[in-house]
Amino acid sequence: GEPHTAVLQRTTCPYCGVGCGVEIVSNDGGATLAVRGDAAHPANKGRLCSKGSALADSLTLPHRLTQPLKGDQPLSWDAALEEITARLKAVLADHGPEAVAFYGSGQLLTEDYYVLNKLGKGFIGTANVDTNSRLCMASTVAGHKQSFGADTVPGLYEDWEQADLVILVGSNTAWCHPVLFQRLLAARQSRGTKIVVLDPRQTSTTAEADLHLPLRSGSDIALFGGLLRAIADAGALNDAYLTAHTNGADTALAVAPDLPAVAAATGLSPVQIAAFYRLFIETPKVVTVFSQGVNQSSHGSTTVSAILNVHLATGRIGTPGCGPFSVTGQPNAMGGREVGGLANQLAAHMDFASADDRDRVRRFWGAPRLAEAPGLKAVDLFQALVDGKIKFLWILATNPLASLPDANLAREALAQCPTVILSDAICDTETARYAHFLLPAATWGEKDGTVTNSERRISRQRAFRAPLGDAKPDWWALAQIGRRLGYADAFAYDRSADIFREHAALSGFENQGRRDFDLSGAIGLSDTDYDALAPFCWPWKAGEAPGASRFFAEGGFFTPDRRARLVPTPMTATASSTSLAFPLVLNTGRVRDQWHTMGRTGFDPRLMAHLPRPTVALNPRDAATLGIAEGDLVQVTSATGAMLRLAEVTDKQPSGEVFASMHWNGAWCGGGAVGRVIAPHVDPLSGQPELKYTPVAVSRL
Ligand code: SF4
To answer: Can you supply one Gene Ontology CC term for this chain's record (predicted)?
Structure first.
């Protein structure tokens, strides 16, 4: 008979922003756990990718942190929390709240994020609460807010299946959001969807494309600016939508480049570009999916605006099969955005810039020291550490020494900070070596809470086993500090449901349709309701049933005049350019079976078997010029630093560009971390670093 019959728990995959539902099942004896796709979850309808399918193999992680440590000395939670609180109080007394910072992660659950944000911004009084989401989708947040007045993803996953044209921009969707890609391919079978992929490289995604545009890295801004002009020239502007619901079309059009300028910037032929423009103009149902290739750029937020512009200009937004669509990397990057877990956000889609919002949040929390202005974004935060301005740093669920640009500077930053606390599930990361206190965090399968996927769908992550050793949920440790600072009532949470209800209440507090993010329908959830909560897309307004809905088909933007803004997007160069010394462009990204800095996937032999070595891919022509052969040990050098990799010579890589995966780091291969090579150039609006364009030289060792 069936070997796996009993469903023990239903939860959500911890890996990516697709947010697939999984079932934890046991065999007849109950001894062995297995994981399978949850057929009832709307995000994946039973599907899983290679990483999700392997989840059961990673339940026993090596190097688990099972008790608090000070240096390498174990201590009780009580002793650790007492000492951390004493150090925090001393820093506050001597240097003020700006000397305190938190650096979190899109891996945190929404409830962890909520308590982190509340403690930092409301009760300690520091807005230095940033996360690794800054490296992931901060430019989308900035772009959404500029155009829509709020960080709103207008559409739903089903739009991918209802579109006749899906444009994938800067995304190897087949590897990075595999289940969404499977859904798209299945829809294509039945409706003949056209797929256009914009990517300098040939990938598993471009292999499925009807049209692949191998544009130069960093030039997508020109391609979409030119598309706006082409739409206008073809008489395809949606004048009714523009007139009723937008401002700024003329200003945006005034700087839109013409076809020869787009061809010069992108390296594409005018024929290729015109074919793409024609397809867009002639296909009413279009979804434009964009991801890290757009975000991780020194002009990422403007490129996002260029993409939003063409959808606003054609009124193709918020209706079935239409809209711009950002896909997030991390499982809960969206939940973090909802909570306000970035240094330039306040809380629940409320802003520092608004005195009313600040007053609202202060009153709701009963906050004694609400931060009044945005704090330091990730790259600036680590620079402030180097400058000695931050004296107390608490890092949660991330490994910045492996993921931040200019890894050498980040190392110096941590080495200088008098108090570094790391909450993590594992203890052998590079960052852990610099932490004065290590706090054991409960991990996937052990903790309860919610996550939000890329279509605004909130799903429960449910525990199905006890935390290992003394591991605790992150919200618990943060709340303990809040209580020890004297705010027992504000942090009197007994379980994650308490926090979710408060989060829902804040989202609805004096909202009245002012803000897109509204969970007021969830305020009255009982503990049992919360445990049984079925996946739903926000908004969930009081008095209404939760249901999947789209935004902006009839306008209703969240700007003061309720109109969208078309933002001018002049062609913009990358922060640095190639030179005789650094003639190649380094692009970075993920590979199919690894996740982040390999803290979980790296321990699974099945997943490691896919691409087991840290490589740098380069075109055969470049390899021949440099005297490099397949498998050679090479040094990749930039103005910032150097790393070692093994050469992979492939004609899938365009000449003039090289590619290295982001996952490998010092814990796995001493010289392999890409962060050593990448300069900390950021988008001026979003603060997101340019991880996709670094001039480098490659030489054989
Ligand atoms: Fe998990 Fe993402 Fe794969 Fe779904 S697509 S199973 S969420 S890694």
So the answer is: oxidoreductase complex
Check pLDDT > 80 for residue 115.
Answer: yes
Whether residues 270 and 368 share a domain: the answer is: no
Res 1 pLDDT > 60: no
Strand partners for 588: 660
CA atoms within 13 A on the CB side of 310: 32
Helix (H) or strand (E) holding 483: helix 474-484
pLDDT at 307 exceeding the cut of 90 = yes
CA 207 – CA 203 distance, rounded (Å): 6
Residue type, 73: Q
315 and 342 belong to one structural domain: no
In a domain, 573, yes or no: no
Q: At 324, is the secondary structure helix, strand, or coil?
A: strand
Query: Of 48, 53, 330, which is best to mutate to test ligand 1, by the most ligand atoms within 8 angstroms of its C-beta?
Result: 48
- Per-residue pLDDT at 668: 62
Q: Which atom of ligand 1 is nearest to the CA of 37?
A: 6
Q: How many domains does the chain have?
A: 4
Q: What is the mean pLDDT of the chain?
A: 94
Same domain assignment for residues 183 and 130: no
Take residue 201 and report the two structure tokens written for it: 């490289």
375 and 274, same structural domain? no
Residue of 24, 38, 49, 595 to mutate, ligand 1, most atoms within 8 A of C-beta: 49
Half-sphere exposure of 127 (CA within 13 A, CB side): 20
In a shared domain, residues 152 and 217: yes
Q: Whose alpha carbon is nearest atom 4 of ligand 1?
A: 20
Average the pLDDT over 250-263 and give the result: 98
Q: What is the CA radius of gyration of the chain?
A: 24
Which of 458, 493, 528 is the last residue before a domain boundary? 493
Give percent above pLDDT 90 in the chain. 84
pLDDT band at 131 (very low <50, low <70, confident <90, very high): very high
Structure tokens at 362: 């202060």
pLDDT of amino acid 238:
98
Establish if 565 belongs to a structural domain: no
- Look at residue 576 and tell me if it is in a domain: no
Is residue 576 a contact partner of residue 218, using CB atoms and an 8 Å limit? no
Q: Which atom of ligand 1 is nearest to the CA of 453?
A: 7
Distance CA 107, CA 341 (A): 12
Could you tell me if the CB of 17 is within 6 A of ligand 1?
A: no
pLDDT for the residue numbered 628 = 98
Pocket test for ligand 1, best of 13, 160, 177, 183 (most atoms within 8 A of CB): 13
Q: Which atom of ligand 1 is nearest to the CA of 12?
A: 7
Q: Is the ipTM of this complex over 0.90?
A: yes
**Which pTM was predicted?**
0.96
* Centre of ligand 1 from the C-alpha of residue 457, in Å: 14
Percentages of the chain per state (helix, strand, coil), in multiples of 5:
35, 20, 45
How high is the pLDDT of residue 2?
53
Question: Which residues on adjacent β-strands are paired with residue 564?
Answer: 246
Residue 172 binned pLDDT confidence (cut-offs 50, 70, 90):
very high
- Domain that includes residue 463, residue range: 69-136+333-493
- Determine the 3-state secondary structure of 577 from DSSP: coil
| pLDDT digit string, tens, across residues 647-664 | 999 999 999 999 998 877
Pair (602, 637) in one structural domain: yes
- According to the model, what pLDDT value does residue 602 have? 80
State if residue 421 touches ligand 1 by the CB under 6 angstroms criterion: no
The dihedral over CA atoms of 181, 647, 135, 171, expressed in degrees to the nearest 10, equals -20
**Are residues 94 and 191 located together in one domain of the fold?**
no
Q: Is the pLDDT of residue 612 over 90?
A: no
Is residue 575 in a domain?
Answer: no
Q: What is the pLDDT of residues 67-114, one digit of tens each?
A: 999 999 999 999 999 999 999 999 999 999 999 999 999 999 999 999
What is the 401 CA–ligand 1 centroid distance (Å)? 25
CA of 132 to the centre of ligand 1 (A): 19
